[in-house]
Amino acid sequence: MSSAGSEKACSSTLATVRAAFHDTAPFNRYVGVELIAIDPRGSASARLPERAEVKGRVGRAHAAALFLVGQAASAAAFLGALLPDIGPVEFAEKSAEITYLGSSDGQVTAEARLEPEAGSVRAELRSTGHARALAHVVLRDAQSSASAS
Predict the structure, then answer these.
(1) Residue 87 neighbours by CB distance under 10 Å
(2) What global pTM score does this model have?
(3) Summary count for the chain: helices (H), strands (E)
(4) Considering 3, 83, 124, 145, which has the largest number of Cβ atoms within 10 A of its Cβ?
């Protein structure tokens, strides 16, 4: 696929997932999580804008809000990777773990990457009717400091 074709596919995938994202997970909208990029090859990013409502007692992003933006990015990576091959999807998270590396200052961006890559996940879905993948997520604050992984 050409670079322009790839960009168009990513834009279309982002629009489709973004539309479903807030309908199926309204808590993301409530907290203010925004999807900003989805690559059908198995990565996505989400943003948590700086707002007083998502800050903890020390004036930085609340740990639960950080977890949510990371989870949103990982779900979007999974959805974006499978979108060409799926109808209705039911997600069942097996586990989640986060390591907080420091407090977050300002807007937070979560970048998720699936492992194995999307082609392998799609092949598993086609052959078994279900798929498993790990999403590795890194959260960065406005200064590009890693906040959590």
Answers:
(1) 4
(2) 0.82
(3) 4, 5
(4) 83
